Here is the input.
Amino acid sequence: MSQFELWIGLVELKPLDRREFEFAGAYTNIVAWADSPVSFNGKTNVIAKRLNMFVASIDDAEPLSARAGTATEEVDDLVRQAESDPEAIVFGTFDSYPSDDA
Here is the structure.
């Protein structure tokens, strides 16, 4: 059985209803407790649904421990928010793009 630990990935989110948002999509880092790429993907889908969005892609999903020494201040903050809550799914700043051509 795998051990749950904090995972991170760069996630592209797109609105379910484009009229609700002023952008076509956005990228954000998501940090969540997971034990595999599949469980991390499931967590990203949970937060996307809460935001009325869907996951278009996930890049570089991996245990946070694999990124030792490469965290930004924002990622450090996300980790602090998630560390003490095994149900946490936290995301950073949305880097949005205006059209699907981006």
